[in-house]
Amino acid sequence: MLGKPKSELKPADVAYAIVQQKQRDEIKFKLAEQYRKEGKSEEAIKFYKEAARGGHTQAQYELGLYFDEGIHVTQNLQEAVTWYRLAALAGYGPAQLSLGSCYEKGDGVRQDYKEALKFFQQAAKQGVADADDALGKCYEYGRGVTRNIEEAVKFYQRAADAGSNIGQNSLGGCYETGKGVKKSVPKAIKLYKLAATAGFAEAQYNLGWLCGKKGGAEEEATAWYERAAKQGHTGAQNSLGSRYQFGTGVEPDINKAITWYKRAADQGDAEAQNNLGKCHEKGWGVGQNREEAARLYKLSSSQGYELAHYNLGRYYEEVKQDIKEAVRLYRLAAKKTYPSAQNKLGECYKLGKGVKQDQAEAVRLFTLAANRGNKSAQNNLRLCAEEAAAAQASAEPEKKTENISKDLTSQTKLVLPLDPILYLPYKPDEEMIKAITRTSSLFIHSAMQMQRPAEEPLRLCYTEEEKKLDDQERPAFSPEEMGEQYFQLGANADENELYDDAIKYYEQASILGSANAQVRLGYSYEKGIHVEKNEEIAVRLYQSAAEKGHPFAQIQLGWHYERGVGVPQDSAQAFHYYQSAANQNNDAVALFMLYRCFSDGIGVAKNLEEAQRLYHSAFAWNSETIHEMERNAEDGDDCAQFTLKCFNAWKGDANAQFELAEYYMRCYQDGCNEEDSEMAVKWYKKAAQQNNSQALYRLGKCYESGVHGVERNLSVAVQLYQKAAEQGHPKALLRLTECREKGGADLERELEKTVHLHRELAEKERSAITHLDLAMHHLKCAAILGNAQAAQIIKSLSEEKNQEQVRAAHPNTLWKENERTRNEDMVRGRTAAYPSSAFAQSARFSHS
Fold first, then answer.
1. How far apart are CA 416 and CA 508, in angstroms?
2. How many C-beta atoms lie closer than 10 Å to residue 242's C-beta?
3. Cα–Cα distance between 382 and 384 in angstroms, integer?
4. In terms of Cα–Cα distance, which of 626, 566, 575, 620 is closest to 598?
5. DSSP string, 21-44
6. Mean pLDDT across the stretch 298-312?
7. How far, in Å, CA of 737 to CA of 751, rounded?
8. What is the DSSP string of 263-325?
9. Cα–Cα distance between 288 and 286 in angstroms, integer?
10. How far is CA 271 from CA 234, 266, 298, in A?
């Protein structure tokens, strides 16, 4: 008899058969793995299939990968999803992550963000670190859940902590841009490096970009780009091609540039396709061929790349003579704010090429392009302004007042648009300023009249007498006056809480050179007040105002150069601007900044005598100066806040000394400058000398760990923690216990002293419950470890705590009655009731 009939099979037989089948599947899976390592893909896939059909989950997942990526098999996303699903339903974490990705992208299944989220959550529960990163992206972009960037950062942090390279890269991106966390480029670089050194190409690319951005690290940037490019990262390949083309961080080599552009273009990178097309158009490194260039531009344009839209538009205009198609492409690029395309489209509207002639639309487009620095657009805009001025000069005298005001105001808005500008506006040349001055004067005049009190008569334009004057004699503002008038309009709007209007007027005033407006607008960009925060734009505005001698701008610019915010760090430049501000009006903040420079050698050789002189000059404040400084600090002025902290710290205010130390420590954490950490320790010491509990605790941590220029010394750390604990710092008590345990010397006696300190602190306060809880914590730890005496003490302390609670509720009736008993308990607690061995065990338990 070859086998038993099915009716005669017993459960044990079935179990045995299942075990045998699993063993066979495991053998097949291992064979597949071995063949894969040997590069025998066909044999590997064969055995993966056999094991997968038998229910081997890992084999099902691996087979899904083959079909997903099309490796040695025809790519079949539906087949991949089938195998992923089988493994995912069996609880295999990586398969759950891959299946979630399929639902997220719509690969092989209908796109469903909620279904993707479900599988990501299942994978995360299985401990798949990359699944936490996937969940983070769901929260960052609002896929299947409500968008929550803070929650996204939590998942990225979990993934990064678990060693996920993609999680480290995502968290680095948050720190680089300040999304959900405080912006910190050093932290971003640290996280990128963790992932990059592990071979994660995206992190290598990001690191290359950051190194290139910060300047002075071009060779390092090229090295990271090359590592990512060799792994097939298209962005890195394109960037590397650009570096070889222009000789950035490497010797120029157009042939290598073409090679890298082609590799990226062949993989579908739109920017690389455009760059390679440009090489074919110009004949750089290849034979000139505009048809091949057009082919590549079309590939890039089909992916929405704005430069390709523009380049392809030029091809249709210049080669194919198809102006309508050219206009269509220019419009696509202009919508993506590409300035050259905006200028080209403006020319089409001005001349009526391919579109109906529209001067207003032409000027609008020229303005958008000009505000982004396009020289051709600036020239076109100047010509429009001259035409507008000429048209006004030839206007009929009898034209109605209201119409003149309306027409000229409209022209002025076109020449100087009141739309918010994302970047610092261009600086008009002298000819353009002359051209727009005449047409802007009336608008300024009218706008100022409109902001007058309601009871005063509204004057919309010039008087009849003024209109009769020759054009050359008619009153007009100079560019500087116009700028200040725009600034005043902005200030009035600001006071009336019309913030959008205020920003628009400040922008116009900045164009015309108003230093006050540039400072006000720069401060808005620095702090993100009614505009998107942008330190680089703030610096450029401060720079322009500083060149005109504005002291506040000079101080702010010096501060940015000193910290390296929005501009490369340059101590010498910082000193220069501080000195320029101080030389003008002996500004207290500028004098103090100079004092710091001479005291600490910031941008100048140390000179303690000069520092002392400047210090006395800076802090020779009367009450009015102090109040003004306090108001500026409350308004968010960083320099004023810093100076006020220093002023109070030097006067001996312990809290101000601690805050100043914390400020320096934050600067260190943001910029990793060791000098900042040493200054922080200096001020921690000054505050600690006055028994500031927070400073004592911070300084204790420095000595415990041996960081920030402090030599490690546990005995000093213990003394500092002891003082902080006596001042009531709760964390100091716990650090004191751990620090004493590390020391090892006279351990039991020291730990006994720690617990007695808990009780002494409890005795000092009417609300003793918090400190009794801390004592109870150590006793419970000892009791868990088997100390019988600790268990007995817990009972008496519990009764004492209950008495404290009752006394708090009925202070008058119970306090005197319980005082004698309570004192007796405390005496017993300080002698035999607290064996040192109990506290030694409790401390070890707590520390572990």
1. 7
2. 17
3. 5
4. 575
5. HHHHHHHHHHHHHHHHHTT-HHHH
6. 94
7. 7
8. HHHHTT-HHHHHHHHHHHHHTSSS---HHHHHHHHHHHHTTT-HHHHHHHHHHHHHTS--HHH
9. 6
10. 9, 12, 12
DSSP string, 578-600: HHHHHHHH--HHHHHHHHHHHHH
Neighbours of 6 (CB within 10 A): 6
CA distance 239 to 229: 9
In angstroms, the Cα distances linking 633 to 629, 639, 642, 765 are 6, 8, 8, 36
- DSSP for residue 494: H
Buried/exposed 776-798: b ≥16 CB within 10 Å, e otherwise: bbbbbbbbeeebebbeebbeebe
Helix extents (H) in 514-637 = 515-527, 535-547, 551-563, 571-585, 588-600, 608-618, 623-634
User: What tokens were used for 436?
Assistant: 């727009």
d(CA 230, CA 241): 12
In the 3-class helix/strand/coil scheme, how is 697-710 assigned residue by residue?
HHHHHHHHHCCCCC
* Tokens 């080209």 belong to residue: 344
Q: How many CB atoms lie within 10 A of CB 832?
A: 8
Q: What is the mean pLDDT of residues 524-553?
A: 84
Whose tokens are 């070890």? That residue is 844
Q: Give residue 54's identity as a one-letter amino acid code.
A: G
CB-facing half-sphere around the CA of 277: CA atoms within 13 A: 26
**pLDDT one-digit tens code per residue, 694-737:** 888 888 888 887 777 788 888 888 888 888 877 777 677 667 66
What does the alpha-carbon distance between residue 697 and residue 455 come to, in Å, rounded to a whole number?
64
Of 175-179, 250-254, 482-486, 833-837, minimum mean pLDDT range: 833-837
Virtual torsion, Cα 365, 367, 370, 371, nearest 10 deg: -120
**CA 732 to centroid of chain Cα atoms:** 33
pTM above 0.70, yes or no: no
Nearest one of 717, 759, 758 to 740, comparing CA atoms: 717
Q: Are 361 and 335 in contact (CB under 8 A)?
A: no
pLDDT tens readout for residues 113-150: 999 999 999 999 999 999 999 999 999 989 999 889 99
**Helices of type H across 422-512:** 430-450, 464-468, 479-495, 499-511
* Cα–chain center distance at 846: 37
CA separation, residue 529 to residues 145, 446, 488, 739, 835 (Å): 30, 28, 18, 46, 61
Task: Give Dmax over CA atoms of the chain in angstroms.
Answer: 127
What are the tokens at 778?
């150590």
Report whether 88 contacts 99 (CB < 8 A).
yes
The residue length of the chain stands at 848
Cα–Cα dist 73/747, whole Å: 68
Angle at 20 between CA 19 and CA 21, to 5 degrees: 90
* Cβ–Cβ < 8 Å for 160, 168: yes
CA distance 243 to 247: 5
Question: In angstroms, rounded to a whole number, what is the distance separating the alpha carbons of residues 579 and 595?
Answer: 10
What is the identity of the amino acid at 740? R
The pLDDT tens digits of the residues spanning 53-82 come to 888 899 999 999 999 988 888 899 999 999
Instruction: Put residue 601 in one of left, alpha, beta given phi > 0 → left and psi -120 to 50 → alpha.
Output: left
Ramachandran quadrant class, 308 (left: phi over 0; alpha: psi -120 to 50; beta: rest): alpha
Q: What is the pLDDT of residue 216?
A: 62
Question: Please, are residues 506 and 525 in contact by the beta-carbon 8 Å criterion?
Answer: no
Alpha-carbon distance 99 to 114, whole Å? Answer: 12
- Characterise 472 by phi-psi region: left (phi > 0), alpha (psi -120 to 50), beta (else): alpha
Amino acid at 407: D
* Assigned token pair, 31: 């064979």
**Looking at the predicted structure, is the pLDDT value of residue 603 above 50?**
yes
Separation between Cα atoms, residue 279 and residue 246, nearest integer Å: 12
